[in-house]
Design brief:
Blueprint: E1 23-25, E2 31-33, E3 47-48, E4 50-51, H1 55-71, H2 77-90, E5 92-94, E6 97-101, H3 105-128, H4 130-157, E7 159-161, E8 164-168, H5 172-179, H6 181-198, H7 206-237, E9 239-241, E10 244-248, H8 252-279, H9 281-288, H10 293-326, E11 328-330, E12 333-337, H11 341-357, H12 363-376, E13 378-381, H13 386-397
Antiparallel strand pairs: 1-2, 3-13, 4-5, 5-6, 6-7, 7-8, 8-9, 9-10, 10-11, 11-12, 12-13
Helix pairs in contact: 1-2, 1-12, 2-3, 3-4, 4-5, 5-7, 6-7, 7-8, 8-10, 10-11, 11-12
Transmembrane segments: 59-80, 125-148, 175-196, 208-231, 262-280, 292-312, 344-362
Region (Disordered): 1-31
Keywords: Membrane, Transmembrane, Transmembrane helix
Length: 415
């Protein structure tokens, strides 16, 4: 990502350090002047992230990407992703310098072909038998930690700030040790539910039926927050900028509290929706009795589901962004995030109205609005002179550039 326009200052009355040109002996004995880095101005105090992208600029990129992806039957989507990410990164800055993205479209296309092959294998197995599909599904779940490790490695290696790349040094083995329990839990839960469903003809007891309904909720409630915590810990604790590591200090209990509050909003929303449904029951019965009643029922159901999503999403987006970045450090430097759920709700709600009124053409403008707000709620808080820290990273990592390229490919896995 990239950021612009930060408070880069020098204490008053302090002049820049003078440059010097010491000499070094050449192989033939002649003195050759060598260049010495000139110290930059001190960067002190909180540095806010800035996003300078505009909806009009991104609309042109979005339209070209969409048309070329359609014409090429999706092949161009890999190149479209690179163009999109480069636009977002190069319009994000902090401390007066921008970010950049260096992803190879061919590597992204290779990852997408792999994903399609895995999906095709699952669909083919589903055509043969449920057991074969379950086996393939279990294999895919077991591959997920390895795929995540490759995705993180690709994304960070191809991201840079001030020309210096980030790195991800987490191994696939560490990913399995961190995340393998979740595919196993879901597989066991799925097998239990399948066994209950297939035994319905044998009249299962009320307790078994209730357990089959509550078990998925308990599994989701217990594993989603924990999985998100472990995923972020694995991602941030193995990330590097130059030679400096990131550290993640959040606790699993904070993720459980955030998701529990989101679940509480869902329960409250369900109560409000139930009251509204009771108050409009007669009108709904009248509309459903018409020839287009099925369409009304479908639209009402979709609208109700999206209202729940519209209210819960801003809360989770803001609270999780603040939780994750307020507990992340780069060496001794801290991050601060102040995203507001109320402000995000306004952005999402107004974006939805404008996208609907423009038949989808406002989508790129909506994307820019959302990204600009979320990026500009972020700050980097240096512990000392940030310019000195950045200079040290450039010198320490110059020889390490390119050592981690390897056989990279990208998979579109949400982080």
């Amino acid at each position: 990502m990239a950021l612009v326009g930060f408070d880069v200052t020098r204490p008053p009355g302090v002049a820049p350090a003078p440059t010097s040109t010491p000499t070094a002996a050449h192989s033939d004995g002649a003195a050759v002047p060598t260049r010495q880095a000139v110290p930059g101005p001190k960067i002190l105090g909180p540095q806010r992230f800035t996003f300078t992208g505009s909806g009009a600029e991104y609309f042109r990129i979005w339209m070209v990407n969409l048309l070329l992806s359609i014409v090429t039957l999706g092949v161009y989507s890999a190149w479209a992703k690179v163009r999109r990410l480069q636009y977002f990164y190069r319009n994000t800055s902090v401390a007066g310098a921008i970010f950049d993205y260096h992803g190879d479209p061919k590597a992204i296309l290779k990852g997408r072909i792999l994903a399609l092959a895995l999906l095709a294998a699952y669909k083919t197995a589903l055509g043969f038998s449920l057991a074969a599909a379950a086996t393939i599904g279990l294999v895919l779940l077991c591959l997920l930690p390895w795929l995540l490790a490759r995705s993180f490695h690709f994304k960070l290696y191809n991201s840079s700030y001030r020309g210096l790349r980030f790195h991800f040094r987490g191994t696939a083995g560490e990913a399995y040790r961190t995340l393998i329990m979740f595919p196993i839990v879901f597989a066991v839960t799925g097998f239990f539910l399948w066994s209950v469903v297939t035994s319905f003809a044998q009249r299962p007891s009320i307790g078994v039926i209730l357990l089959s309904g509550l078990l998925p909720l308990l599994v989701l409630g217990g594993t989603v927050p924990l999985a998100h915590y472990l995923l972020k810990r694995y991602q941030h604790d193995h990330a590097y900028f130059g030679q400096s590591p990131f550290f993640f200090h959040a606790r699993a209990s904070s993720f459980f509290k955030t998701y529990a509050k989101a679940l509480g909003f869902i329960v409250v929303g369900a109560i409000v929706a139930g009251i509204f449904g009771a108050m409009t029951a007669r009108m709904q019965l009248f509309l459903r009795a018409t020839s287009f009643g099925w369409l009304f029922g479908l639209l009402f159901g979709l609208a109700s589901a999206y209202v729940f999503y519209l209210f819960v999403r801003p809360y989770l987006e803001s609270r999780l962004q603040n939780l994750i970045w307020n507990q992340t450090e780069l060496a001794d430097h801290q991050f601060r995030s102040t995203a507001s759920a109320r402000h995000l709700l306004w952005i999402h709600a107004s974006n939805l109205v404008l996208i609907s009124l423009t038949l989808g053409l406002y989508k790129p403008f909506a994307t820019i609005r959302l990204i600009k707000y979320r990026v500009e709620q972020m700050s980097l808080i240096p512990q000392g002179d940030l310019e000195e820290f950045l200079s040290d990273q450039s010198h320490a990592s110059a020889s390490a550039m390119g050592q981690e390229a390897g056989d990279l490919f990208d998979l579109d896995i949400a982080l």
